[in-house]
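Quick one: structure tokens for this chain, please?
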Amino acid sequence: MKAGAFTAAILFGAAALVVAHHGQVGLFDESRIVELKGTVKQWNFINPHPILVLDAPDDKGVRKDWDVYFGPGAVPSLRRQGFAADTFKAGETVVVKGHPATTGAPGVDVLGKGTGVTRADGRSVP
């Protein structure tokens, strides 16, 4: 194999791995949006993927810890959108609209139309 073809094969292979790792397809049901009102337990503003942990009831009223994902973006991407390490405070009430996990696990993704996080007073976050 010539060096150019070998390099191209490596680059295409690496790109496929990145897409596979960072793709959201199949992880969340993008045809549905659920709404959760709960209390912030923790805001993990760290790479590779910041996660908000929310104490909120499920559709049967059972309180659970929900992982709120902000798409495939890492900290630098969310910073550009206005998020910071102090965006959420433990104990504050927020409303999350997001795509539920396809596995039924308590997790939602807030990337996409009609999704997001608002504070108790209705202000959008960030």
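The mean pLDDT is 85.
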